[in-house]
Specification:
By secondary structure, this protein is α/β, with parallel strands linked by helices. The chain has a single domain (about 15-275), classed as Alpha-Beta Barrel (TIM Barrel). It has helices at about 25-40, 60-65, 105-110, 120-125, 130-140, 155-160, 160-175, 205-215, 225-230, 265-275; strands at about 15-20, 45-50, 80-85, 115, 145-150, 185-190, 230-235, 245-250, 250-255.
């Protein structure tokens, strides 16, 4: 069994909903409305829910959750915020880059987070570790928090190269990345071979991956920065039945949820388990 020392600091649990290209604008709006009502009454302290709709739905979802200034999400004893995330970002603020979305455009919509390097973008859109590196830097320069996705393929796992894959992606993706005291980074361990399959990895494997990530991070950041500014989470076939196995204080501090975040009843059950 992987042993873990709890961090003395109070850590937020991040629940990230990646809606991918699955919902219409109206469906995304309806789901955001339902979740905003749910969190007003049922979510307890130190949980942050990040909604990542398609680009076309960002305006509507941003209006619903209100951003940092909304009094609805500064409620007495509940330290809970619905935050807005993007599913991707480009690494220039402006220019002749047809079809891309810049950090400045996202900030106008009160986007706080951006998913970087998801395996589907690596697989279908040829995104590589260099692209990931540039996008992480663009996020940090624009006060956005990158959600850096890494994970091994089935073939890499079969050959016993999970650690090699994680070390490669981290080393290349974090090259020359610096974190200031107020900057945050989320690293999502998402084994490629379980995404969308309905079966998560053994929790022990996820914890071992988190330990590998922590060791690699020491090559880039001080222990204080790692403890205070970097969060490691798990993603891949997360549901209400298994989510508690993947939230371990000091190692895994949240989850990246795909298909189970598309249905209010399923996603709210995940929230209930972790609250």
């Amino acid at each position: 069994m992987v042993k873990n020392k709890k961090n003395n600091m109070t850590q937020k649990t991040h629940i990230i909903a990646n809606w991918k290209m699955q919902l219409s604008n109206q469906e995304a709006t309806d789901l955001a409305v339902a979740l905003s009502r749910e969190t007003k009454s049922s979510v307890q302290k130190q949980i942050e829910i990040i909604l990542c709709p398609s680009f076309t739905a960002l305006v509507q979802v941003s209006a619903i959750i209100g951003g940092d200034s909304s009094p609805d999400f500064r409620r007495g004893q509940n330290d809970i915020r619905l935050q807005l995330g993007a599913q991707n970002i480009f690494y220039h603020d402006k220019g002749a880059y047809t079809g891309e979305i810049s950090p400045l455009q996202l900030k106008e919509l009160k986007v706080k987070y951006a998913i970087i390097g998801h395996s589907e973008r690596r697989q279908f859109l040829n995104e590589n570790d260099h692209d990931v590196n540039l996008k992480i830097k663009a996020c940090l320069l624009n006060s956005l928090t990158p959600i850096m996705c890494i994970g091994e393929t089935f073939e890499e796992r079969r050959l016993g190269k999970t650690a090699v894959a994680l070390i490669r992606q981290l080393t290349r993706g974090l090259e020359d990345v610096k974190l200031e005291n107020d900057q945050k980074l989320i690293i999502a361990y998402e084994p490629v071979w379980v995404i969308g399959r309905g079966q998560a990895v053994d929790p022990e494997e996820a914890l071992q991956a988190a330990q590998i990530i922590k060791r690699v991070l020491l090559d880039f950041f001080t222990p204080e920065i790692i403890a205070n500014n970097i969060t490691i989470i798990y993603g891949g076939s997360v549901d209400a039945g298994n989510v508690k196995n993947f939230v371990v204080p000091g190692l895994l501090e949240g989850v990246l949820v795909g298909s189970a975040s598309l249905i209010f009843e399923k996603f709210s059950k995940i929230i209930d388990v972790l609250k």
